[in-house]
């Protein structure tokens, strides 16, 4: 293995759940009108977007500090809509959103929430992600790489909700090391960056990047993963490099967001990639900050000699506000409970 | 389900005829069609904003199904108003408001102007509207004290007043929710993962300004707001709604939200009411003075450059300048160009 050990291990910015209050209302309504006592797993949809830097720096005394928000995956009332009626609440996920398929386990009691074999249901999701990688289903539909799990218990009398998100990431076969991190503009020309921006809109959350190497032909195109053979295997530029990209919900200046993890496993397992250039696609409003936030990573991926036949170990439970592996709670009583609201009437 | 004044308001909204012809330059009000035009322009100019359809059961017929209201999410709010202090609060602040061509004008004493409207205006032409408005102030006080009490009882301290002065926090074992959260997480373990970037640090390492340092000490976690704009048929103006989250994405209480509202407006023109398109109550800036304020802003803009044509689709960009005076530390952008 050619990996020089002096290169640091790549660290990924974990996702943070963002639950819209409309999600809790829709869950409550579904529990009463549809699920009742049926606690079977339900398909839901999550949303994330390229990190969007609206404000670059905060001046505190003499020190200007970079302000970076969390990498968010959101669920809203629209998360319960099936494909057929998703248009009925169009726009809830905000502009430029990417969908992530999720599975919801809503228990009937707090005791059931406690007793639920969380490791088992988490492992089931990990198995499905691994299956989509080995079968190639994730090449056709890369959103399968960001499958997530959500456990909930809704105390409908108090409008109090217990919840726990898991964002399963298959562990790498050996640590991924990072050779270089650079802002996108140090790697590509303004024209190429613009081509990247327009290209990403039409392709989706994970993509291939084809860059013409000739200086006088300053072009870049964004392609779907299904075009791997054309873009990479029959690449005539001769440098043999593989360049990929993903819609990155993280704004960390030196780290990619969590969704890249399973994508790297796909690259290794499916195409035996051992070195890759990755563009972490983010957006910035140019008048509020002078530094665009998209970054380009040069990575070495230690490739296993044989592809594992079972699902690799998996991590990704969200930590709670005290940084512990525990659920979170949300008390919406003051804002949803008719009795509590009625109390405030004059 | 709803407060008395909001029920009353929705009844009046129902009875009030729709505004048909444009009057925005004369009176500062908008027709529903103009609201849609201005919303389309806002979404085009500021891609962080998008149209939402809301709950289909609460759809307003006079607006397109997919354009019921506007929303922008996760807007950072870096510091509390009292910390912001300084010029903004002392003299009402000066804001450079840019016109479409890049010509700018200065809106001075925005806060005072709005304050004058709410206080003097209220006394001078006290009428039915204003009585309702005053009533709602009492409602807010009730909500505030109620939420504040509830908040102390069952959650970790997360407003500055609650935090003990030395920055320490009480033993988490004393807080029932934390115990329950821990108990519910029992049995879940994960292998060590050196590839996970260390995330949030516990609240005990709180930064003075209420923002949390992350793995990198230059990176801060902040309060955020979801801001939405609805069309108020009675007042014929846009109306702003706020839903806030703390540094750990827990919903903010009314008391905490008022920390982010300029002192001229907190608990006077900002109330907690049911959102017209969703099943949640939120903080809202009462729209009774919006038309007056918008009329003044429009007049100033036209005076400063008499040759300039003001288009109605620019209304919401101007409206957000006014909203900025109410929410001085909430950093939504008005910018128009995108970079990567």
TrEMBL record, chain B:
GO BP, sorted A to Z: autophagosome assembly; autophagy of mitochondrion; glycophagy; nucleophagy; protein transport
GO molecular function (one): Atg8-family ligase activity
Keyword entries, A-Z: Autophagy, Cytoplasm, Protein transport, Transport, Ubl conjugation pathway
Keyword Nucleotide-binding tagged: no
GO CC aspect terms: cytosol; phagophore assembly site
Entry's family note: Belongs to the ATG3 family.
PANTHER family: UBIQUITIN-LIKE-CONJUGATING ENZYME ATG3
The protein, known as: Autophagy-related protein 3
Gene source species: Powellomyces hirtus
Organismal lineage: Eukaryota, Fungi, Fungi incertae sedis, Chytridiomycota, Chytridiomycota incertae sedis
């Amino acid at each position: 293995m050619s990996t020089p050990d002096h290169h640091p291990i790549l660290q990924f910015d974990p996702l943070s759940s963002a639950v819209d209050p409309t999600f809790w209302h829709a869950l409550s309504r579904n529990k009463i009108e549809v699920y009742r006592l049926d606690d079977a797993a339900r398909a839901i949809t999550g949303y994330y977007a390229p990190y969007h830097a609206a404000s670059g720096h905060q001046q505190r005394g003499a020190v200007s500090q970079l302000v970076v928000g969390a990498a968010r995956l959101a669920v809203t009332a629209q998360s319960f809509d099936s494909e057929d009626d998703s248009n009925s609440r169009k726009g809830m996920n905000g502009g430029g959103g990417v969908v992530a398929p999720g599975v919801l386990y809503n228990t009937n009691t707090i005791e059931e929430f406690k007793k639920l074999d969380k490791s088992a249901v988490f492992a089931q999701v990990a198995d499905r992600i691994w299956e989509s990688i080995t079968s190639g289903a994730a090449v056709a539909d890369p959103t399968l790489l960001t499958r997530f799990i959500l456990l909930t218990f809704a105390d409908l009398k108090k409008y109090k909700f217990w919840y726990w998100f898991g964002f399963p990431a298959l562990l790498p076969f050996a640590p991924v090391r990072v050779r270089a991190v650079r802002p996108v503009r140090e790697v590509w020309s303004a024209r190429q960056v613009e081509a990247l921006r327009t290209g990403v809109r039409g392709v989706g959350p994970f993509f291939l990047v084809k860059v013409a190497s000739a200086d006088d032909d300053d072009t870049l195109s964004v392609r779907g993963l299904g075009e791997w053979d054309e873009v990479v295997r029959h690449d005539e530029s001769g440098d043999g490099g593989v360049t990929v990209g993903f819609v990155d919900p993280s704004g960390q200046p030196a780290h990619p967001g969590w969704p890249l993890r399973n994508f790297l496993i796909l690259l290794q397992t499916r195409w035996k990639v051992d070195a890759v250039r990755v563009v972490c696609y983010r957006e910035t409003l140019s008048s509020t900050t002078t530094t665009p936030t998209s970054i380009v990573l040069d990575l070495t991926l230690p490739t296993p000699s044989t592809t594992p036949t079972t699902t690799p170990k998996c991590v990704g439970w969200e930590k709670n506000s005290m940084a512990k592996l525990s659920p979170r709670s949300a008390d919406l009583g003051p804002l949803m409970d008719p009795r509590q609201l009625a109390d405030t009437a004059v | 389900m709803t407060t008395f004044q909001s029920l009353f308001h929705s009844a009046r909204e129902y009875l009030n005829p729709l505004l048909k012809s444009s009057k925005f330059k004369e009176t500062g009000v908008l027709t529903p069609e103009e609201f849609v035009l201005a919303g389309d322009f806002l979404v085009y100019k500021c891609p962080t904003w998008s149209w939402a359809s809301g709950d289909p059961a609460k759809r307003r017929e006079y607006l397109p199904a997919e354009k019921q209201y506007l929303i922008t999410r996760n807007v950072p709010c870096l510091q509390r108003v009292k910390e912001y202090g300084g010029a903004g609060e002392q003299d009402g602040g000066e804001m450079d408001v840019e016109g479409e061509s890049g010509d700018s004008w200065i809106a001075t004493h925005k806060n005072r102007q709005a304050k004058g409207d709410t206080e003097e205006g209220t006394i001078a032409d006290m009428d039915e509207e204003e009585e309702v408005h005053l009533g709602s102030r009492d409602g807010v006080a009730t909500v505030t004290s109620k939420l504040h009490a509830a908040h102390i009882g069952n959650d970790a301290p997360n407003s500055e007043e609650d935090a003990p002065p030395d920055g320490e926090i009480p033993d988490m074992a004393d807080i029932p929710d934390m115990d329950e959260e821990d108990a519910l997480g029992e049995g879940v373990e994960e292998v060590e993962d050196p590839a996970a970037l260390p995330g949030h640090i516990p609240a005990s390492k709180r930064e003075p300004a209420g923002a949390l340092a992350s793995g990198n000490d230059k990176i801060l976690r902040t309060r955020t707001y979801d801001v939405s704009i609805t069309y108020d048929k009675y007042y014929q103006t846009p109306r702003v709604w706020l839903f806030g989250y703390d540094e750990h994405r827990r919903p903010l209480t009314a008391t905490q939200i008022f920390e982010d509202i300029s002192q001229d407006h907190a608990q006077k023109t900002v109330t907690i009411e049911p959102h017209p398109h969703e099943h949640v109550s939120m903080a809202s800036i009462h729209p009774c003075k919006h038309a007056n304020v918008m009329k003044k802003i429009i007049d100033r803009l036209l005076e400063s450059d008499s040759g300039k044509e003001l288009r109605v689709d620019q209304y919401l960009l101007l409206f957000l300048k006014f909203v900025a005076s109410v929410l001085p530390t909430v950093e939504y952008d008005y910018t128009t160009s995108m970079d990567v």
